Amino acid sequence: MSADRELSEETRLIHLGRSQPMEGVRPVSPPVVRTSTVLAPDIATMRANKARREDGSRVFSYGARGTPTNHALEEAWAALEGGERALLFPTGLAAIAHVLLTCLLPGSHVLIQNTVYPQVHAIRSKFLDPRGIASTYFDGTVEDAAAKITPATRMIYAENPGSWVYDLIDVKALSTLAHDHNALLVIDNTWASGLLHKPLLHGADISVIAGTKYVVGHSDVMMGAVVANGELGRELWRMQVVMGQTVSPDDAWLTLRGLRTIAARLPIHASGALRIARFLQDHPLVERVLHPALESHPRHDLWRRDFTGANGLLTIGMRPDLDLAAVDRFVDTLRLFGIGSSWGGFESLALPQAPDTVRGWTGPGVPVRLHIGLENPADLEADLARGLAAIG
Ligand SMILES: *Cc1c(COP(=O)(O)O)cnc(C)c1O
């Protein structure tokens, strides 16, 4: 099925990683297979499986290496990202950590985009620094990366786009720079979640995704993935076995259920977010609105070139004379927006934050990030209008 390239993506996502026949028929979804021990019919089969596993092949040989439930999700996820191999991790952060800790050796150097997911800074200070792995921040542009790359650079790590100001990067140009220096380009692809952008098809070597967001889509599972091709994918997998990283088949099953509908859900999030973005752009209490699908977005051109759509995230900058307390009051007044971090579920969220703590935020006004869920956007718009009126 995965080789069936002439089928559209929506169709492939429905048919990939489906169940095997049992008792002559089959259920729609693969069963949740829970096990530690995997019983072989004889010693020869067991030894052959072990040899294949050491060769880097995915084999159902022990619970920690993933059961057929995990394998079904891996197959579908690799197809979603346009890659050969997907590996599953208990969180998005664990996926990021696996890539940084297994691909970088003492003495090497990594360029890290300065607006990446905040916990990456902690990995840098707690793990890379003490182990003699040098790192330098760059601003996401190819020019800055080219000025800072060194002969020791083995990786460029970036997020495309970040989830507050949606700072888009030129993956193709960065991959050329990285490969000219014998370095890997790693992209955190959580915003696009594989559906809207496929970094590996634009020259990146590794895509990491917090499945917790749109792939799961229901705010009820933590999940991460790493997607890579060829020997790199096999090596990342061997290191996953070394480190004992695995995910529960129950979580894999729920994530596969979420993945089935991602192509149906994301356009609804995106059209709701665009409508709300336009509404807020015209509101007198709002200074500016950031969302890549708006023509006013600074890198709208790159979004049009490299992405096939948008998602439900947008960030508003409130009018500069409104302080954080006033903005907090606005959010507290909302009835349909939950107050919480993360995003990608069916529900709308609002999160105000002090400007100096928001990565990549410049200019006046307190930022509020909205996640537009699957509610009717007219209801959300009325709720926002009421909230703004309360502080106006
Ligand atoms: C949420 C997020 C992560 C971390 O994912 P968890 O599953 O919460 O660990 C990493 N990168 C980005 C861009 C995210 O939004």
Summarize the structure in words.
With 392 residues, this protein is of the alpha/beta class. 38% of the residues lie in helices and 15% in strands. The chain has 13 helices and twelve strands. The chain has helices at residues 9-15, 43-54, 68-81, 92-103, 119-128, 142-148, 171-180, 230-243, 249-260, 262-281, 300-306, 324-333, 377-391; strands at 85-89, 109-113, 134-138, 153-159, 184-188, 206-210, 224-228, 286-290, 313-318, 338-339, 349-352, 367-371. The strands form two sheets. The chain has a seven-stranded mixed beta sheet, sandwiched between helices. α3 packs parallel to α9 (249-260) and α12 (324-333) crosses α13 (377-391). The protein is globular and about 75 Å long. The chain starts with 8 loop residues before the first helix and ends with a helix. 45% of the residues are buried. The structure holds pyridoxal-5'-phosphate. Residues 91-93, 117, 159, 163, 188, 190, 210, 212-213, 222, 224, 342 line the site of pyridoxal-5'-phosphate.
Keywords:
seven-stranded mixed beta sheet, binds pyridoxal-5'-phosphate, 392 residues, five-stranded mixed beta sheet, 12 strands, alpha/beta
Structure described in brief:
The protein is an alpha/beta fold. The chain has helices at 9-15, 43-54, 68-81, 92-103, 119-128, 142-148, 171-180, 230-243, 249-260, 262-281, 300-306, 324-333, 377-391, and strands at 85-89, 109-113, 134-138, 153-159, 184-188, 206-210, 224-228, 286-290, 313-318, 338-339, 349-352, 367-371.
The largest pleated sheet is described as: 7 strands, mixed
Q: What amount of the residues lies in strands?
A: 15-25%
Q: Compute the CA-based radius of gyration.
A: 22 Å
Uncertain runs with pLDDT below 50, 5 residues or more?
none
Q: Give the number of DSSP strands.
A: 12
